[in-house]
Amino acid sequence: MSEQPVIEVQGLKKHFPTGQKGKVVHAVNGIDFAIRPGETLGMVGESGSGKSTVGRTILRLTNPTAGKITFCGQDISSLSMDRCRPLRSDMQMVFQDPWSALNPRMKIGSLISEPLLLHDKMVRSERQDRTEALAKRVQLSTEFLNRYPSDLSGGQLQRVCIARAIATNPKLIVLDEPTSSLDLSVRAGILELLAELKEETRVAMLFISHDLGTVKLISDQIVVLYLGQIVERAPAGSVFEAPAHPYTQSLMSAHLPADPHFVVRRQILEGEVPSPIDLPTGCSFHTRCPVAIEACSRQEPPLDQLGDNGHLAACLRIKDGGNKIA
Amino acid sequence: MSLLEVNELETHFVSRDLDNNIRTARALNGVTFAVDSGEFLGIVGETGAGKSLTAQSAVGLLRPPARVVGGSVRFAGTELLNLSDDELNGLRGHEIAMVVQNPRTSLDPLTRVGDQLIRIRQAHVKSSNSEARKRALEMMDAVGIPDPERRAMAWPHELSGGMAQRVLIAMALMNEPRLLIADEPTTGLDVTVQAQILDLLRDLVKRMNMAAIIITHDLGVVAHYCDRMAVMFAGSMVEVGPVKAVFDRPAHPYTKNLIAATPERLKLGETSILGAPPPDLYNLPDGCHHRDRCQYAEDICLTDPKIEDVAPGHAARCHLAARLLETAK
Prior knowledge:
A: 12 strands, 29% helix, globular, B: 329 residues, alpha/beta, 8-stranded mixed sheet
């Protein structure tokens, strides 16, 4: 039997009020996934697809509207905030913008040791040793411990954020676009660090990004979101080699690998993403789907198994083989 | 002669430090490139390399403390650096158009988008309201805005990011420019929208035989849309050449490292040459600015390298370029 997942999500929904009576923003609409120890799940989708909301909800930074979140075997979906607090040391988050994620008036050393102070009862000298070890682990010179965030570059600050996240030896880290604001050469270093940490500590990671190249590099599994629903879930390689859902196919074709010899066959979608306030009936993608049939506007497609490697996709046209777009 | 020829352009920021001593940031120090009609040139580089500053310096959009201190910018044979503001205003928005990164902040929030298009036409070309309006609707149609009649009446805040960027492109094309400069035109847009916008830009450039410069940090964009590319590092153009040649046979060590850092080529656990901070522009070292983070640096690198051809149309600013290419074969 495979290991117990660190986090398991079933039927997760999150709706936000709009201020208008009876109208809500359907940010997340029934999502299932699980991440096992040492596994990285890449989550991709366009802006507004609900990626970040999923990340925040599974950490209980916002309350789910419906669904079950199981963290290390414990149902946390309806725990009070007070009861969540002891779990926080096992679940951590790294944000997109390290400049605004760190208190500008705290020294780097205090920033890295802050989680230790909150969660672990350590004597001062022990904490100091651990802080230095953490700085070294993220390849940050210990000279920086006495400096302020404004003295560091973006890549160095993101290393500080990662050091804070791993300080308490968490079981799960949610990374919300951790490399999007960084330059290419700096990004490469951060990705390398994350891959090493994953190997060493077997921490489970949810890696949220819109950059398909980065996600492909770091993830074991990838889920593709569209309007708060999973349209496809598969091992990283299969998503790129054999995308099954028409939306995934179009998303992959819009991806530009940094290689002039790679021939891109673009399949650009018409129109724009529908409003998450008034979701389309049936398959939420049918309004833009080039291969939609009449049934797609009535029937919600289930997330079906495609092969034996765990490749799943939610499209009615897969059965009749009409899911390939141009 | 190319439409735009930039030669060893230099821009400095002069300010005073806390002790009131004058200090100079050599933000651009040797930018050389050319772009022809019908050609799509990509300028790439990391944050602070001087990509946007190159465009702003070339078309006279600098504000103090930034100042062009050397070099030349020739547009269709005219030296732009010698022109007065009035003369430049006649060119900008007319023969030279620019599309910038934040479409929403570049539109006037209190004017309907159609009126903004009409304004730019009438500012440069004598035309009646109905003529200008007709052209505005044509341009909105050309950039793929559905139902232009209705969208012309829209306020900027009513547009999505992709639509606002299309309006800016329509605005740039109103007066049939000969040179289009797009500064990070798709950064912040979703990949599917990015592809739509770039497809559109490339079609228009080829159809109208414009010269286009696209400034980006995304090597994927350059690889798929540009004919030629120019790589910037610490304020200088370190390599210029045809896209395929630069990707296949990078002549400058910086270009080589940059290409190796793309997710497509990155092998986790193998590389460790990356991530050194770029040199301080207030205190640039003598000789090659890349020296301190270059894996090939030699004694000769203590002297300034010139940008020199390594193949027809492919030039690099590196003493060792020819030798590196030879050994890479």
